[in-house]
Automatic annotation (TrEMBL):
InterPro entries: RNaseH-like_sf (IPR012337), RNaseH_sf (IPR036397), TPR-like_helical_dom_sf (IPR011990), YprB_RNase_H-like_dom (IPR038720)
Organism listed in the record: Paenibacillus residui
Coiled-coil segments on the chain, per record: none
Limits of the YprB ribonuclease H-like domain: 121-287
Family annotation (Pfam families): RNase_H_2
Renumbered residue ranges of the record's region Disordered: 1-57
Amino acid composition bias (Polar residues), ranges on this chain: 38-47
Protein's recorded name: Ribonuclease H-like domain-containing protein
Amino acid sequence: MSMLRERLNRLKKKDSTGSLPTETASEMGPPDGKESQADPSGHSTMLPQEEEKGPSAEGWERMGVQYESNEWGSFLIRKRTYPADYLHGRYPIGDLYRVCPSLSAMAGTEGGQELHPEELLFFDTETTGLGIGAGNVPFMLGMGYYRSGAFVVEQMLIRNPAEEVAMLAYFNRLLLRFSCLVTFNGRTFDWPIVRNRFVLNRMELEREPSVQLDFLYASRSLWRNTLPACRLGIVEESRLGHTRVDDVPGSLAPTLYFRYLSEGDPAVLAGVLDHNEQDVLSLAGLAIHFGRALRGELELTGMEAEELYRLGKWLDRLGCAEQAAHAFERLLQCSSREADEFRLELAALYKKKGDYDSALALWKGLAAGAASTGLTAIEPFIELAKYYEHKVKDYGTALAYAEEAYQIAWRRETLVRRHQKRQPVLEDIRKRIERLKLKELNYALAELYNEEMG
């Protein structure tokens, strides 16, 4: 209704001045006698309207916010530029120019086409709610992009729902300059919300990004168990070395926006603007971090065994075999007992890839360690029994490993209380032993028969 009312009011103004209804704002010049000035991007930056002068306009000005207009109306915008040597945490923001081509492995670009930093649009929204339904409005769009070695952050803000169309129109044109959208949970939240707003406002989205990099998925692949949570704030602090001071949590953004709508005080949204800007900068920092990981430039010393395993598995999945091998080698050097679990996982990965030599070495090492320390891990013994039974056809060796697994499983079962449900592991191993004994007997009979017939 607010959009329809705004259009009707616009038509009334045009009719009262004798203008034709088909004339656009660009043909008529600045509406209502407002002065305008051009910015380097070619858009018109509106000076505050007469009725907006005073404390409100001064509040926006103190935060570096300006008025922007197009043929759909006006909204607010803040632009800041960061030089290449600006440090966001431990990384200079311009380092992406060096490592960006490696991100092509994450993007899955056709033909291995390399990404360039100036093709990437870093994107984050602040909304009036948490869902992606029609009632959730993005009142702030934060964007970052590289130009001439520097990093530019643009933040668009609407003072009321009637300004949404103008903001979306500006974003629509800006999006044409980029082929890749970089977000954190944007694939299922930020981007669907914005796309829905285009539909609800009956606006055509001129072009969707051909590539989307959602860093939430990579973060979960690497740190889902080694970090308390995979929220952007936790990831940036632990992996980028960036700590926010007096940050406004993103969960408070809707409440603060509604408070601004009620009070009209721009200062209410100062913290939300800063929070959104930090999110955009952290997206660039994460792009650098993942780019360095894909190039094998991360410092592996001090990483936990699980992170080393998940890093290697992630790199291997993206086709970075050499970098994955370095992470796995570091995992094999870990002496902690917790590392055995991930060495077993690594052996399973080698088995899946058909690298039985590497898997066999890990299984034997784990089996020797279990025998010497009295651990209750039966998996390496079972895997060795399977290997010698099915791959080597050495039933005697397979039987020895199966019997060792049975002894360990039996000791483990004796520790289980009577009222607890027992696992069918012992029965499975017992059946394997019986089968192996029968195979070994048949093999011995066959050998004896061949000797007699020979």
